[in-house]
Amino acid sequence: MGQVEIITANTAAAFAAKLCRVQVISAYPITPQTPVTEELAEMVESGALQAEYITVESEHSALASVVAASQVGARVFTATSANGLLYMHEMLHWAAGSRVPIVMACVNRGVGAPWTILNDQQDTISQRDTGWLQIYCRNSQEVLDTIIQGFRLAEQIQIPVMVCYDGFVLSHASTPVDVPSQDEVDRFLPRFLDRSGINGGTPMNVNPLILSDPRLGPDDKLMPGYMEFRFMLQRDILNSLQIIESVDREFSDVFGRSWGGSLWKYKMEDADHAIVSMGSLASECTIAADMLRDRGVKVGVVGVRVYRPFPASQISEYLSHLKTVTFFEKDVSYGFHGAVAMDAKAALYESASRPSVSSYVVGLGGRDVRPEQLAEATINCIGGSTGHHWLDVRN
Amino acid sequence: MESRQSYEIIWHGRGGQGAVTAAKMFTEAAYYAGFKGVSAKPAYFSERRGAPVSVHTRVSVEPVRTFANVLFPDIAVVLDDNLLEMVNVTSNLKTGGLIVVNSAQTAYDLGLEGQYSVAISDAYRCSQEAGLIIEGNVLVSTSILGPLVASTDLVGTEDIRKAIEKKFKGKSIERNLKAFELAHDRTIIVDIKRRVAVAKG
To answer: N or C, which end of chain B has less CB nearby within 10 Å?
Structure first.
Protein backbone atom coordinates (compact mmCIF):
# COMPACT_ATOMS: atom_id res chain seq x y z
CA MET A 1 0.00 0.00 0.00
CA GLY A 2 1.15 3.50 -0.78
CA GLN A 3 1.35 6.42 1.62
CA VAL A 4 0.09 9.94 1.02
CA GLU A 5 2.78 12.59 1.42
CA ILE A 6 2.46 16.36 0.99
CA ILE A 7 5.29 16.93 -1.47
CA THR A 8 6.30 18.97 -4.50
CA ALA A 9 6.33 17.58 -8.05
CA ASN A 10 10.14 17.69 -7.91
CA THR A 11 10.14 15.45 -4.84
CA ALA A 12 7.55 13.22 -6.52
CA ALA A 13 9.87 12.90 -9.55
CA ALA A 14 12.85 11.99 -7.35
CA PHE A 15 10.75 9.44 -5.42
CA ALA A 16 9.58 7.94 -8.72
CA ALA A 17 13.13 7.55 -10.04
CA LYS A 18 14.11 5.81 -6.80
CA LEU A 19 11.08 3.52 -6.89
CA CYS A 20 12.02 2.60 -10.48
CA ARG A 21 15.42 1.48 -9.15
CA VAL A 22 17.36 3.61 -11.63
CA GLN A 23 20.99 2.54 -11.82
CA VAL A 24 22.68 5.57 -13.35
CA ILE A 25 21.72 9.23 -12.89
CA SER A 26 23.48 12.13 -14.49
CA ALA A 27 22.08 15.62 -14.28
CA TYR A 28 23.17 19.23 -14.19
CA PRO A 29 21.23 21.50 -11.83
CA ILE A 30 19.06 24.28 -13.29
CA THR A 31 16.12 26.11 -11.73
CA PRO A 32 13.37 24.88 -11.32
CA GLN A 33 14.64 21.32 -11.76
CA THR A 34 17.42 21.66 -9.12
CA PRO A 35 15.63 19.95 -6.18
CA VAL A 36 15.26 16.77 -8.28
CA THR A 37 19.04 16.51 -8.62
CA GLU A 38 19.61 17.42 -4.96
CA GLU A 39 17.19 14.84 -3.63
CA LEU A 40 18.50 12.06 -5.85
CA ALA A 41 22.10 12.92 -4.96
CA GLU A 42 21.19 12.68 -1.27
CA MET A 43 19.54 9.30 -1.79
CA VAL A 44 22.62 7.97 -3.57
CA GLU A 45 24.94 9.46 -0.95
CA SER A 46 22.98 7.93 1.96
CA GLY A 47 22.74 4.56 0.26
CA ALA A 48 18.94 4.72 0.11
CA LEU A 49 19.28 4.40 -3.67
CA GLN A 50 21.84 1.99 -5.13
CA ALA A 51 22.87 3.98 -8.17
CA GLU A 52 25.78 5.72 -9.78
CA TYR A 53 25.36 9.51 -9.73
CA ILE A 54 27.60 11.08 -12.36
CA THR A 55 28.26 14.77 -11.79
CA VAL A 56 29.01 16.58 -15.03
CA GLU A 57 29.90 20.07 -16.23
CA SER A 58 26.90 20.54 -18.52
CA GLU A 59 23.54 19.24 -19.66
CA HIS A 60 25.09 18.07 -22.91
CA SER A 61 27.40 15.80 -20.93
CA ALA A 62 24.58 14.75 -18.60
CA LEU A 63 22.59 13.36 -21.49
CA ALA A 64 25.69 11.94 -23.20
CA SER A 65 26.48 10.08 -19.95
CA VAL A 66 23.07 8.50 -19.64
CA VAL A 67 22.99 7.60 -23.35
CA ALA A 68 26.25 5.70 -22.84
CA ALA A 69 25.10 4.08 -19.59
CA SER A 70 21.83 3.05 -21.24
CA GLN A 71 23.73 1.57 -24.19
CA VAL A 72 25.60 -0.77 -21.84
CA GLY A 73 22.37 -1.85 -20.20
CA ALA A 74 21.65 0.41 -17.21
CA ARG A 75 18.28 1.91 -16.32
CA VAL A 76 19.00 5.63 -16.41
CA PHE A 77 17.36 8.91 -15.40
CA THR A 78 18.05 12.59 -15.87
CA ALA A 79 16.19 15.86 -15.47
CA THR A 80 16.48 19.39 -16.81
CA SER A 81 14.71 22.64 -17.70
CA ALA A 82 14.68 25.38 -20.33
CA ASN A 83 18.16 26.43 -21.53
CA GLY A 84 19.58 23.23 -20.04
CA LEU A 85 17.27 21.21 -22.25
CA LEU A 86 18.27 23.30 -25.26
CA TYR A 87 21.93 22.66 -24.46
CA MET A 88 21.08 18.94 -24.75
CA HIS A 89 19.61 19.43 -28.20
CA GLU A 90 22.25 17.52 -30.14
CA MET A 91 22.20 14.63 -27.66
CA LEU A 92 18.39 14.51 -27.73
CA HIS A 93 18.58 13.50 -31.37
CA TRP A 94 21.44 11.15 -30.54
CA ALA A 95 19.47 9.44 -27.76
CA ALA A 96 16.39 8.86 -29.92
CA GLY A 97 18.46 7.71 -32.89
CA SER A 98 20.34 5.31 -30.60
CA ARG A 99 16.99 3.93 -29.43
CA VAL A 100 17.93 4.10 -25.75
CA PRO A 101 15.10 3.95 -23.15
CA ILE A 102 16.00 7.08 -21.15
CA VAL A 103 13.35 8.73 -18.99
CA MET A 104 13.94 12.44 -18.44
CA ALA A 105 11.96 14.80 -16.22
CA CYS A 106 11.56 18.13 -18.02
CA VAL A 107 10.52 20.85 -15.61
CA ASN A 108 8.97 23.36 -17.97
CA ARG A 109 10.45 26.86 -17.86
CA GLY A 110 10.48 29.78 -20.25
CA VAL A 111 13.51 30.10 -22.50
CA GLY A 112 15.94 33.05 -22.39
CA ALA A 113 16.63 35.67 -23.67
CA PRO A 114 15.43 37.62 -21.82
CA TRP A 115 16.11 35.45 -18.78
CA THR A 116 13.18 34.01 -16.95
CA ILE A 117 13.17 31.18 -14.48
CA LEU A 118 9.39 31.00 -14.53
CA ASN A 119 7.07 28.60 -16.28
CA ASP A 120 5.93 28.08 -19.82
CA GLN A 121 6.26 25.14 -22.22
CA GLN A 122 8.35 26.67 -24.97
CA ASP A 123 11.40 24.66 -23.89
CA THR A 124 10.02 21.16 -24.51
CA ILE A 125 7.80 22.18 -27.42
CA SER A 126 10.88 23.52 -29.19
CA GLN A 127 12.42 20.00 -28.84
CA ARG A 128 9.36 18.37 -30.40
CA ASP A 129 11.10 17.00 -33.47
CA THR A 130 13.95 15.16 -31.74
CA GLY A 131 12.26 11.75 -31.73
CA TRP A 132 11.37 11.59 -28.04
CA LEU A 133 7.96 10.82 -26.61
CA GLN A 134 6.56 13.83 -24.75
CA ILE A 135 4.06 13.42 -21.91
CA TYR A 136 2.63 16.47 -20.10
CA CYS A 137 1.41 16.11 -16.51
CA ARG A 138 -1.47 17.99 -14.93
CA ASN A 139 -0.51 17.48 -11.26
CA SER A 140 2.21 16.03 -9.03
CA GLN A 141 0.55 12.63 -8.66
CA GLU A 142 0.60 12.31 -12.42
CA VAL A 143 4.30 13.25 -12.44
CA LEU A 144 5.17 10.40 -10.08
CA ASP A 145 2.95 7.92 -11.89
CA THR A 146 4.08 8.98 -15.37
CA ILE A 147 7.77 8.49 -14.59
CA ILE A 148 6.96 4.93 -13.51
CA GLN A 149 4.85 4.42 -16.65
CA GLY A 150 7.60 6.12 -18.66
CA PHE A 151 10.17 3.46 -17.90
CA ARG A 152 7.75 0.67 -18.83
CA LEU A 153 6.99 2.45 -22.06
CA ALA A 154 10.55 3.48 -22.97
CA GLU A 155 11.92 0.01 -22.34
CA GLN A 156 9.17 -1.66 -24.33
CA ILE A 157 9.61 0.49 -27.44
CA GLN A 158 13.29 1.43 -26.95
CA ILE A 159 12.56 5.12 -27.38
CA PRO A 160 13.37 7.86 -24.82
CA VAL A 161 10.55 9.60 -22.95
CA MET A 162 10.27 13.18 -21.64
CA VAL A 163 7.98 13.56 -18.65
CA CYS A 164 7.09 17.26 -18.70
CA TYR A 165 5.65 19.26 -15.79
CA ASP A 166 5.25 22.96 -15.14
CA GLY A 167 8.04 24.71 -13.27
CA PHE A 168 7.13 26.31 -9.91
CA VAL A 169 3.40 25.85 -10.59
CA LEU A 170 3.90 22.12 -9.93
CA SER A 171 7.62 21.72 -9.30
CA HIS A 172 7.63 23.82 -6.13
CA ALA A 173 4.00 23.46 -4.98
CA SER A 174 3.31 21.02 -2.15
CA THR A 175 0.21 18.86 -2.65
CA PRO A 176 -0.91 15.39 -1.52
CA VAL A 177 0.76 12.61 -3.51
CA ASP A 178 0.12 8.91 -2.99
CA VAL A 179 3.62 7.41 -2.99
CA PRO A 180 3.35 3.73 -3.89
CA SER A 181 5.27 1.00 -2.10
CA GLN A 182 8.38 -0.53 -3.62
CA ASP A 183 6.53 -3.86 -3.94
CA GLU A 184 3.80 -2.32 -6.07
CA VAL A 185 6.31 -0.61 -8.36
CA ASP A 186 8.40 -3.79 -8.65
CA ARG A 187 5.26 -5.65 -9.69
CA PHE A 188 4.52 -3.12 -12.43
CA LEU A 189 8.07 -2.46 -13.56
CA PRO A 190 10.32 -5.53 -13.72
CA ARG A 191 14.03 -5.16 -13.25
CA PHE A 192 15.71 -3.74 -16.32
CA LEU A 193 16.91 -6.30 -18.83
CA ASP A 194 20.07 -5.40 -20.68
CA ARG A 195 19.18 -5.77 -24.35
CA SER A 196 22.34 -4.14 -25.61
CA GLY A 197 24.44 -7.29 -25.89
CA ILE A 198 27.50 -5.16 -25.26
CA ASN A 199 28.05 -6.57 -21.76
CA GLY A 200 27.74 -10.08 -23.21
CA GLY A 201 31.16 -9.69 -24.75
CA THR A 202 29.97 -9.23 -28.31
CA PRO A 203 32.24 -6.68 -29.97
CA MET A 204 30.17 -4.14 -31.88
CA ASN A 205 30.38 -0.79 -33.51
CA VAL A 206 27.61 1.37 -32.05
CA ASN A 207 26.12 4.02 -34.33
CA PRO A 208 28.66 3.78 -37.15
CA LEU A 209 28.60 6.09 -40.14
CA ILE A 210 25.78 4.89 -42.34
CA LEU A 211 25.09 5.28 -46.04
CA SER A 212 21.91 6.30 -47.76
CA ASP A 213 21.26 2.85 -49.20
CA PRO A 214 21.15 -0.46 -47.31
CA ARG A 215 24.38 -2.41 -47.51
CA LEU A 216 25.82 -5.71 -46.32
CA GLY A 217 27.04 -5.82 -42.73
CA PRO A 218 30.08 -7.77 -41.47
CA ASP A 219 27.83 -10.83 -40.96
CA ASP A 220 26.68 -10.68 -44.57
CA LYS A 221 23.21 -9.46 -43.54
CA LEU A 222 21.70 -6.48 -45.29
CA MET A 223 21.85 -3.46 -42.92
CA PRO A 224 19.23 -0.70 -43.12
CA GLY A 225 20.23 2.64 -44.57
CA TYR A 226 19.80 5.97 -42.74
CA MET A 227 16.31 6.46 -44.08
CA GLU A 228 15.20 2.98 -42.95
CA PHE A 229 16.39 3.76 -39.40
CA ARG A 230 14.41 7.00 -39.47
CA PHE A 231 11.35 5.22 -40.84
CA MET A 232 11.54 2.61 -38.06
CA LEU A 233 11.72 5.38 -35.45
CA GLN A 234 8.67 7.10 -36.93
CA ARG A 235 6.76 3.80 -37.26
CA ASP A 236 7.53 2.79 -33.66
CA ILE A 237 6.64 6.21 -32.27
CA LEU A 238 3.29 6.15 -34.10
CA ASN A 239 2.62 2.60 -32.92
CA SER A 240 3.45 3.57 -29.34
CA LEU A 241 0.01 5.25 -29.07
CA GLN A 242 -1.50 1.78 -28.50
CA ILE A 243 1.22 0.88 -26.01
CA ILE A 244 0.70 4.11 -24.08
CA GLU A 245 -2.96 3.11 -23.63
CA SER A 246 -2.12 -0.44 -22.51
CA VAL A 247 0.62 0.71 -20.13
CA ASP A 248 -1.85 3.15 -18.54
CA ARG A 249 -4.45 0.35 -18.21
CA GLU A 250 -1.96 -2.03 -16.62
CA PHE A 251 -0.81 0.77 -14.31
CA SER A 252 -4.42 1.23 -13.24
CA ASP A 253 -4.70 -2.50 -12.47
CA VAL A 254 -1.80 -2.28 -10.00
CA PHE A 255 -2.18 1.23 -8.56
CA GLY A 256 -5.87 2.01 -9.07
CA ARG A 257 -5.10 5.24 -10.96
CA SER A 258 -5.48 5.83 -14.68
CA TRP A 259 -4.41 9.02 -16.47
CA GLY A 260 -6.38 8.56 -19.66
CA GLY A 261 -3.59 7.26 -21.90
CA SER A 262 -2.79 9.93 -24.45
CA LEU A 263 -5.85 12.17 -23.95
CA TRP A 264 -8.20 12.76 -21.06
CA LYS A 265 -11.70 14.21 -20.98
CA TYR A 266 -13.55 16.33 -18.45
CA LYS A 267 -17.33 16.78 -18.73
CA MET A 268 -17.22 16.04 -22.47
CA GLU A 269 -20.22 13.61 -22.54
CA ASP A 270 -22.84 16.21 -23.48
CA ALA A 271 -20.49 19.07 -24.42
CA ASP A 272 -21.14 21.42 -27.34
CA HIS A 273 -17.81 23.17 -26.87
CA ALA A 274 -14.37 22.05 -25.80
CA ILE A 275 -11.32 23.63 -24.27
CA VAL A 276 -8.07 21.90 -25.24
CA SER A 277 -4.87 22.35 -23.28
CA MET A 278 -1.82 20.61 -21.80
CA GLY A 279 -0.18 20.22 -18.39
CA SER A 280 -1.32 22.10 -15.28
CA LEU A 281 -3.01 24.65 -17.55
CA ALA A 282 -5.43 21.92 -18.67
CA SER A 283 -6.33 21.35 -15.01
CA GLU A 284 -6.96 25.10 -14.68
CA CYS A 285 -9.25 24.82 -17.72
CA THR A 286 -11.51 22.36 -15.84
CA ILE A 287 -12.32 25.19 -13.40
CA ALA A 288 -13.15 27.45 -16.35
CA ALA A 289 -15.42 24.71 -17.75
CA ASP A 290 -17.21 24.48 -14.37
CA MET A 291 -17.73 28.27 -14.39
CA LEU A 292 -19.20 28.16 -17.89
CA ARG A 293 -21.45 25.21 -17.03
CA ASP A 294 -22.77 27.26 -14.09
CA ARG A 295 -23.76 29.83 -16.75
CA GLY A 296 -25.56 27.12 -18.73
CA VAL A 297 -22.93 26.68 -21.45
CA LYS A 298 -22.08 23.05 -22.16
CA VAL A 299 -18.30 23.12 -22.09
CA GLY A 300 -15.86 20.27 -21.47
CA VAL A 301 -12.09 19.91 -21.48
CA VAL A 302 -9.85 17.63 -23.54
CA GLY A 303 -6.41 17.39 -21.96
CA VAL A 304 -3.53 16.49 -24.25
CA ARG A 305 -1.37 14.23 -22.10
CA VAL A 306 0.80 12.80 -24.83
CA TYR A 307 1.95 15.41 -27.33
CA ARG A 308 4.38 13.15 -29.20
CA PRO A 309 3.19 10.85 -30.63
CA PHE A 310 0.26 13.16 -31.37
CA PRO A 311 -3.05 11.30 -30.81
CA ALA A 312 -4.46 12.71 -34.04
CA SER A 313 -7.31 10.32 -34.80
CA GLN A 314 -8.51 10.39 -31.20
CA ILE A 315 -8.39 14.22 -31.18
CA SER A 316 -10.44 14.23 -34.34
CA GLU A 317 -12.93 11.78 -32.84
CA TYR A 318 -13.33 13.88 -29.67
CA LEU A 319 -13.56 17.29 -31.36
CA SER A 320 -14.95 17.03 -34.90
CA HIS A 321 -18.66 17.02 -33.92
CA LEU A 322 -18.41 20.05 -31.58
CA LYS A 323 -19.53 23.62 -32.29
CA THR A 324 -16.36 25.33 -31.06
CA VAL A 325 -12.95 24.43 -29.69
CA THR A 326 -10.72 26.88 -27.81
CA PHE A 327 -7.04 26.08 -27.39
CA PHE A 328 -4.90 27.43 -24.58
CA GLU A 329 -1.19 26.75 -24.55
CA LYS A 330 2.05 28.09 -23.09
CA ASP A 331 4.06 27.99 -26.30
CA VAL A 332 4.06 29.44 -29.79
CA SER A 333 5.60 28.60 -33.12
CA TYR A 334 6.78 32.11 -33.95
CA GLY A 335 5.25 33.26 -37.18
CA PHE A 336 2.25 30.95 -36.89
CA HIS A 337 0.17 29.56 -33.99
CA GLY A 338 0.53 27.51 -30.84
CA ALA A 339 1.86 24.01 -31.39
CA VAL A 340 -1.13 22.08 -30.02
CA ALA A 341 -3.64 24.16 -31.97
CA MET A 342 -1.72 23.66 -35.23
CA ASP A 343 -1.50 19.91 -34.79
CA ALA A 344 -5.09 19.50 -33.67
CA LYS A 345 -6.33 21.52 -36.64
CA ALA A 346 -4.26 19.35 -38.95
CA ALA A 347 -5.80 16.28 -37.29
CA LEU A 348 -9.29 17.67 -37.93
CA TYR A 349 -8.62 18.27 -41.64
CA GLU A 350 -9.75 14.76 -42.58
CA SER A 351 -13.10 15.07 -40.76
CA ALA A 352 -16.33 15.67 -42.61
CA SER A 353 -17.42 18.15 -39.94
CA ARG A 354 -15.15 20.57 -38.13
CA PRO A 355 -15.67 22.95 -35.18
CA SER A 356 -14.93 26.69 -35.20
CA VAL A 357 -11.55 27.15 -33.58
CA SER A 358 -9.73 29.85 -31.69
CA SER A 359 -6.31 29.47 -30.13
CA TYR A 360 -4.66 31.40 -27.34
CA VAL A 361 -1.07 31.75 -26.25
CA VAL A 362 -1.17 32.27 -22.47
CA GLY A 363 0.99 32.33 -19.37
CA LEU A 364 4.41 32.79 -20.95
CA GLY A 365 7.28 33.35 -18.50
CA GLY A 366 5.13 32.72 -15.44
CA ARG A 367 2.30 35.15 -16.24
CA ASP A 368 -0.51 34.06 -13.91
CA VAL A 369 -3.45 32.45 -15.72
CA ARG A 370 -6.80 32.67 -14.00
CA PRO A 371 -9.83 30.46 -14.68
CA GLU A 372 -12.00 33.56 -15.21
CA GLN A 373 -9.73 34.66 -18.07
CA LEU A 374 -9.95 31.21 -19.67
CA ALA A 375 -13.74 31.21 -19.30
CA GLU A 376 -14.03 34.66 -20.89
CA ALA A 377 -11.82 33.74 -23.84
CA THR A 378 -13.83 30.55 -24.35
CA ILE A 379 -17.08 32.57 -24.38
CA ASN A 380 -15.55 34.84 -27.03
CA CYS A 381 -14.76 31.82 -29.17
CA ILE A 382 -18.28 30.48 -28.70
CA GLY A 383 -19.53 33.93 -29.72
CA GLY A 384 -17.70 33.69 -33.02
CA SER A 385 -14.23 35.11 -32.38
CA THR A 386 -11.95 32.65 -34.14
CA GLY A 387 -8.26 32.87 -34.99
CA HIS A 388 -5.02 33.22 -33.08
CA HIS A 389 -4.76 35.41 -29.97
CA TRP A 390 -2.50 36.20 -27.04
CA LEU A 391 -4.23 36.42 -23.67
CA ASP A 392 -3.39 39.17 -21.19
CA VAL A 393 -0.67 40.99 -23.10
CA ARG A 394 -0.43 44.38 -21.39
CA ASN A 395 0.48 47.77 -22.79
CA MET B 1 -15.55 32.52 9.91
CA GLU B 2 -18.42 30.69 8.26
CA SER B 3 -17.85 27.06 7.37
CA ARG B 4 -17.10 26.58 3.67
CA GLN B 5 -15.72 24.11 1.15
CA SER B 6 -12.40 25.77 0.49
CA TYR B 7 -10.15 28.45 1.91
CA GLU B 8 -7.33 30.49 0.46
CA ILE B 9 -4.46 31.74 2.60
CA ILE B 10 -1.52 33.99 1.74
CA TRP B 11 1.56 33.88 3.94
CA HIS B 12 3.81 36.94 4.05
CA GLY B 13 7.35 36.64 5.33
CA ARG B 14 10.92 37.46 4.51
CA GLY B 15 13.17 35.18 2.49
CA GLY B 16 14.67 32.64 4.88
CA GLN B 17 12.17 33.33 7.66
CA GLY B 18 10.20 30.12 7.30
CA ALA B 19 7.03 31.12 5.45
CA VAL B 20 7.29 28.06 3.19
CA THR B 21 7.92 25.72 6.13
CA ALA B 22 4.98 27.23 8.03
CA ALA B 23 2.66 26.98 5.02
CA LYS B 24 3.72 23.41 4.28
CA MET B 25 3.18 22.31 7.88
CA PHE B 26 -0.22 23.97 7.94
CA THR B 27 -1.35 22.33 4.70
CA GLU B 28 -0.10 19.00 5.98
CA ALA B 29 -2.08 19.49 9.19
CA ALA B 30 -5.12 20.45 7.09
CA TYR B 31 -4.75 17.18 5.18
CA TYR B 32 -4.73 15.29 8.50
CA ALA B 33 -7.82 17.29 9.48
CA GLY B 34 -9.66 15.82 6.50
CA PHE B 35 -9.17 18.36 3.70
CA LYS B 36 -8.48 16.20 0.62
CA GLY B 37 -7.19 19.13 -1.41
CA VAL B 38 -4.30 21.15 -0.01
CA SER B 39 -1.62 23.11 -1.81
CA ALA B 40 1.23 25.42 -0.85
CA LYS B 41 2.88 27.33 -3.68
CA PRO B 42 5.74 29.74 -3.04
CA ALA B 43 5.14 32.97 -4.97
CA TYR B 44 8.81 33.94 -4.93
CA PHE B 45 11.61 32.65 -7.07
CA SER B 46 15.07 34.10 -6.85
CA GLU B 47 14.59 36.65 -4.09
CA ARG B 48 17.39 37.01 -1.60
CA ARG B 49 17.29 36.34 2.13
CA GLY B 50 15.38 39.11 3.85
CA ALA B 51 13.31 40.24 0.86
CA PRO B 52 9.51 40.15 1.24
CA VAL B 53 8.14 36.82 -0.04
CA SER B 54 4.74 35.17 -0.05
CA VAL B 55 3.31 31.67 -0.21
CA HIS B 56 -0.14 30.88 -1.58
CA THR B 57 -2.05 28.00 -0.03
CA ARG B 58 -5.43 26.41 -0.51
CA VAL B 59 -7.24 23.97 1.74
CA SER B 60 -10.29 22.37 0.21
CA VAL B 61 -12.74 19.55 0.83
CA GLU B 62 -12.20 18.45 -2.80
CA PRO B 63 -8.81 17.93 -4.50
CA VAL B 64 -7.36 21.23 -5.74
CA ARG B 65 -7.42 21.68 -9.53
CA THR B 66 -6.34 25.30 -9.76
CA PHE B 67 -2.73 26.48 -9.66
CA ALA B 68 -3.37 30.18 -10.18
CA ASN B 69 -2.17 32.70 -7.63
CA VAL B 70 -4.47 33.47 -4.73
CA LEU B 71 -5.83 36.98 -5.39
CA PHE B 72 -8.46 37.39 -2.69
CA PRO B 73 -7.41 35.40 0.38
CA ASP B 74 -9.68 34.45 3.26
CA ILE B 75 -6.71 34.66 5.59
CA ALA B 76 -3.43 36.59 5.49
CA VAL B 77 -0.66 35.36 7.77
CA VAL B 78 2.16 37.81 8.47
CA LEU B 79 5.39 36.41 9.92
CA ASP B 80 7.02 39.80 10.44
CA ASP B 81 5.02 42.88 11.47
CA ASN B 82 7.55 45.17 9.74
CA LEU B 83 6.11 43.87 6.50
CA LEU B 84 2.82 45.64 7.23
CA GLU B 85 4.55 48.92 6.28
CA MET B 86 5.95 47.44 3.04
CA VAL B 87 3.20 45.16 1.75
CA ASN B 88 -0.50 45.97 1.76
CA VAL B 89 -1.58 42.60 3.11
CA THR B 90 -5.19 43.58 3.79
CA SER B 91 -6.10 45.29 0.48
CA ASN B 92 -7.38 42.09 -1.16
CA LEU B 93 -8.44 40.30 2.02
CA LYS B 94 -12.03 39.06 1.72
CA THR B 95 -14.62 40.96 3.73
CA GLY B 96 -15.04 39.11 7.01
CA GLY B 97 -11.60 37.57 6.57
CA LEU B 98 -8.81 37.19 9.06
CA ILE B 99 -5.30 38.55 9.43
CA VAL B 100 -2.85 36.67 11.64
CA VAL B 101 0.22 38.59 12.74
CA ASN B 102 3.40 37.80 14.63
CA SER B 103 3.75 40.92 16.74
CA ALA B 104 4.34 42.23 20.23
CA GLN B 105 2.04 45.14 19.41
CA THR B 106 -1.73 45.49 19.44
CA ALA B 107 -4.00 45.61 16.38
CA TYR B 108 -4.59 49.28 17.11
CA ASP B 109 -0.86 50.05 17.24
CA LEU B 110 -0.37 48.17 14.00
CA GLY B 111 -3.13 50.18 12.34
CA LEU B 112 -5.17 47.09 11.53
CA GLU B 113 -8.72 48.30 11.13
CA GLY B 114 -11.16 47.08 8.53
CA GLN B 115 -13.86 44.54 7.75
CA TYR B 116 -11.76 41.65 9.01
CA SER B 117 -10.72 40.01 12.26
CA VAL B 118 -7.21 40.12 13.66
CA ALA B 119 -5.32 37.45 15.60
CA ILE B 120 -2.02 38.51 17.13
CA SER B 121 0.56 36.57 19.06
CA ASP B 122 4.19 37.32 19.83
CA ALA B 123 5.43 34.27 17.96
CA TYR B 124 8.99 35.55 17.99
CA ARG B 125 9.08 35.70 21.79
CA CYS B 126 7.36 32.30 22.10
CA SER B 127 10.00 30.72 19.88
CA GLN B 128 12.73 32.40 21.91
CA GLU B 129 11.27 31.00 25.12
CA ALA B 130 10.98 27.55 23.57
CA GLY B 131 14.64 27.67 22.54
CA LEU B 132 13.94 27.67 18.80
CA ILE B 133 17.14 29.51 17.95
CA ILE B 134 19.64 28.34 15.34
CA GLU B 135 22.84 30.32 14.79
CA GLY B 136 21.25 33.36 16.37
CA ASN B 137 18.10 33.18 14.23
CA VAL B 138 14.80 32.82 16.06
CA LEU B 139 12.59 30.46 14.03
CA VAL B 140 8.92 31.41 13.89
CA SER B 141 7.62 28.92 11.33
CA THR B 142 5.85 26.76 13.92
CA SER B 143 4.95 29.45 16.45
CA ILE B 144 3.12 31.49 13.78
CA LEU B 145 0.75 28.53 13.46
CA GLY B 146 -0.33 29.18 17.08
CA PRO B 147 -2.47 32.27 16.45
CA LEU B 148 -3.73 30.79 13.15
CA VAL B 149 -5.02 27.65 14.86
CA ALA B 150 -6.35 29.60 17.83
CA SER B 151 -8.43 31.92 15.63
CA THR B 152 -9.86 29.38 13.13
CA ASP B 153 -11.41 25.93 13.24
CA LEU B 154 -9.67 24.60 10.12
CA VAL B 155 -7.22 22.32 11.91
CA GLY B 156 -6.82 21.09 15.46
CA THR B 157 -3.81 21.14 17.74
CA GLU B 158 -3.44 17.37 17.24
CA ASP B 159 -3.14 17.85 13.47
CA ILE B 160 -0.37 20.41 14.00
CA ARG B 161 1.37 18.05 16.42
CA LYS B 162 1.36 15.32 13.74
CA ALA B 163 2.79 17.73 11.16
CA ILE B 164 5.51 18.86 13.58
CA GLU B 165 6.41 15.27 14.44
CA LYS B 166 6.72 14.49 10.73
CA LYS B 167 8.84 17.54 9.97
CA PHE B 168 11.27 17.53 12.90
CA LYS B 169 13.39 15.00 14.76
CA GLY B 170 14.44 14.45 18.40
CA LYS B 171 14.43 17.36 20.85
CA SER B 172 13.50 19.73 18.09
CA ILE B 173 9.97 18.25 18.13
CA GLU B 174 9.44 19.30 21.76
CA ARG B 175 10.82 22.79 21.17
CA ASN B 176 8.58 23.32 18.16
CA LEU B 177 5.53 21.99 19.97
CA LYS B 178 6.24 24.26 22.92
CA ALA B 179 6.66 27.30 20.67
CA PHE B 180 3.38 26.48 18.94
CA GLU B 181 1.50 25.97 22.19
CA LEU B 182 2.84 29.16 23.79
CA ALA B 183 1.91 31.23 20.75
CA HIS B 184 -1.48 29.51 20.57
CA ASP B 185 -2.31 30.21 24.21
CA ARG B 186 -1.15 33.85 24.09
CA THR B 187 -3.20 34.73 21.02
CA ILE B 188 -5.29 37.86 21.24
CA ILE B 189 -8.21 37.81 18.84
CA VAL B 190 -9.84 41.08 17.89
CA ASP B 191 -13.07 41.09 15.96
CA ILE B 192 -12.74 44.48 14.29
CA LYS B 193 -16.45 44.67 13.51
CA ARG B 194 -17.31 44.32 17.17
CA ARG B 195 -14.58 46.80 18.06
CA VAL B 196 -16.06 49.37 15.75
CA ALA B 197 -19.46 48.84 17.37
CA VAL B 198 -17.97 49.27 20.83
CA ALA B 199 -16.20 52.44 19.75
CA LYS B 200 -19.48 53.85 18.49
CA GLY B 201 -21.23 53.04 21.76
So the answer is: C
